[in-house]
Structures are given as C-alpha cells and as structure tokens.
Design goal:
The chain is mostly helical and 362 residues long. The chain is 67% helix and 1% strand.
Length: 362
C-alpha cells in the first residue's frame, strides 16, 4: 500500500472484525472517496459534489439544445421504454413458470426422500454399503434458496447478454445522451439486482455463494469475496477503455481506486481473522474423542459474520459503480458497462472452451 496506514482492531464480541463495524475502526488518511464512518461504511466522500452537473454527465450547451434533442428523441425513448416493459413482462412470465416447475420438483423430491427413508429403516442399513453421501460433500436435499438463486442468476446472465448487445449497437449509432442514459440506468440497476439476489442466497447457503459455485471455472479463479475486486476493475478493465479522460477525471478515478484498495484490504484482513477464528473453534478440545457437537454448534453460530462479509463486499462494488457513473459522462458510463459486460462474457467463453478442449489420451 502507499503511505496511507491503517490499524486493525479486533471485535470485542467474537475476536474478529465484523464487516459492518470493522471498517469504522479503520482510519484512512488522504483524499479518499470512500468514508467508512457509520451508518454507511462505504459512503463516498462528498468531494465530488464540486463537480458540476454538466461535467458529471457530459452535457454542454444551452438549455435550448436539450429541448431540441428531447423533441427529436421523444419517440425513440417511448419505444425503448415500451420494449423494456415488454421484455420485463416476458421475463416475469418465464420466472413464474420456472418457479412453478421448481415447486413441483421439490414436492416430488420430498416424496422420494420419504420413501427412501422408510426403505432404509426397513432394511436397517444405508443403501450403497453404508456410505452417507452427505459426508462426501453431497447434500441429500436441495436447498430451495440456492435453487431459486441459480435459476434467477441464469436469467440474469441472459438479460445481461441482451443488454450488452443493445448497448454495443447504441454506442455505434448516433444515439443522443438522453436515450443512452436509459441504457446506462438499466445496466446499473441490473448489477444492483444481482447484489440483492446474492444477499438473499447467502442467508440460505453462504458457502455456495462465497465459493463461486454459481460461476464458471474461469470466473471463480478471479473471485474476491464472491465477486469482482473494485480496484482491479478500475485499473485493468475500465481505465484502458475510457479514453480520452480529462485530467480531473483521471484524478478522480485514481482517488477512487485508492479508496477501494484501502476498503478491500480492510475486508480481506477481516476475512483472514474470521478464517482463523473458525478453524480455531472447530479444532478446539481433544481431537480423536469422537464427540464434537459442541464445536460444530459454536462454529455454525459464527457463519452469520461470513454472510455479512459478502453483503459488505457487494456494497463496496455498488458504491464504486455509482461513483464511476458520477465521474464519467453518460457515453463514457455506457462504454464502462459495455467493457464490464464483455469482460464477463470472455471469462464465460474461456471456461467453455477450456472444458471442451481435446485432451490427449494417456
């Protein structure tokens, strides 16, 4: 890190730094965008408020120019809104049908489990030579919260692919900023919806979310607390695709990246501390006695902190996206969303190509 220093203060209650309160224990000095004081640990500093509305959204010229442009694109905007409403309606219908099918499958699964349980009781032993598949890492029941998340995430990816295609066409056309603003708002909300979905799914099974099992193999390789690392997003993905930037924009993005790095370091150290506490709890006592229910219960009680780390990491990602849009013009923000979306598409394609590659016979 740079000259900025930070001091880690453990939690009094668990011996770990809980994500909601831990960031408030860090004192970041310098010209930062992210303020970690309560109630919002990632609230961005208000030093960007000095940017004018015209600079923030790339608008220039007198008000008459906006009136003329609004008149020209009014029909296009209405058509686009109608298309978005129709697409949302079809998506809701597909989701409803899938949920109904999922509920039917769940009921059938419960019936099969009950039949299997009765058979095991009658036979007096487990099917398959006494092997309990739950001990091998396979759950005998399907977590309905995770099943719903997997279904919704599949639809999320499909919708993102559609948005990327439309956004690319819009940027290659002579579309004005007013209509382009609709695409940007829609793309931002799409990412925010994903963060909400993940928060709900983490309550159902935080290990499934934080391990990235819902992602492709290449995406999992780059995961940081169940998602992308904001500082790397700014440095490696967005900056090379946002030229030309003004000097003020460069300074603002640089300060934002530095603040993101500091917040990421704080969360990472908190995760390391939690990892140590969980390992210590599960290993306490004399190993080999065969009675470890107390250790299991104590460890499970601490899993709520792990889910909070996922929520706070996504909060940092959301705040970063909002500040990026605040710094950039509307067209630059659209280019930013396109770059992010195509990057994720490349990772998914890489995973598909890798898994389907020809392998040599040994």
């Amino acid at each position: 890190m740079n000259s900025t220093t930070a001091r880690f203060v453990p939690s009094k209650r668990m011996g770990i730094c809980e994500p909601m309160h831990q960031m408030a224990m860090w004192d970041f000095k310098g010209n930062n965008f992210l303020d970690t004081s309560p109630p919002s640990m990632f609230e961005i500093e208000t030093n960007l408020d000095n940017l004018s509305e015209d600079t923030s959204h790339g608008t220039v010229g007198p008000s008459s120019k906006y009136d003329q442009e609004a008149s020209k694109s009014d029909d296009k905007v209405r058509r686009r809104l109608a298309q978005n409403r129709e697409a949302a309606r079809k998506s809701r219908l597909r989701k409803k049908a899938y949920v109904q099918q999922l509920e039917s499958s769940k009921l059938r699964l419960i019936q099969l489990e009950q039949e299997l349980h009765r058979t095991r009781q009658q036979q007096g032993h487990y099917v398959g030579g006494g092997i309990d598949t739950s001990q091998l890492g396979y759950s005998e029941t399907t977590n309905p919260g995770i099943a719903t998340f997997e279904m919704e995430y599949g639809q999320w990816v499909e919708e993102q692919n559609r948005q990327i295609s439309e956004l690319r066409s819009a940027l290659n056309s002579d579309m004005g900023d007013m209509e382009l603003h609709i695409f940007v708002d829609c793309g931002m909300r799409h990412y925010f919806d994903l963060f909400t979905m993940k928060a709900t799914a983490a309550k159902a099974d935080v290990f499934h979310i934080i391990s990235g099992m819902w992602k492709t193999s290449a995406e999992r390789f780059f995961l940081w607390i169940a998602g992308f690392r904001p500082s790397e997003l700014l440095k490696q993905i967005l900056m090379p695709n946002l030229e030309p930037l003004t000097e003020q924009q460069r300074l603002d993005v640089s300060n934002l990246r530095q603040s993101c790095q500091q917040a990421e370091d704080a969360l990472s150290q908190g995760m390391e501390k939690l990892h140590f506490i969980l390992a210590e709890t599960i290993a306490e006592g004399q190993l080999g006695e065969g009675n470890y229910l107390h250790q299991i219960g104590s460890t499970i009680d601490k899993f709520e902190a792990l889910a909070r780390f996922v929520v706070q990491a996504d909060h940092l990602r959301q705040e970063t996206l909002q500040q990026i849009y605040r710094i950039l013009s509307t067209r630059q923000a659209a280019q930013c969303l396109l770059a992010m979306g195509e990057y994720l598409q490349r990772l998914r394609t890489l995973s598909s190509c890798w898994s389907s590659r020809p392998t040599e016979q040994t």
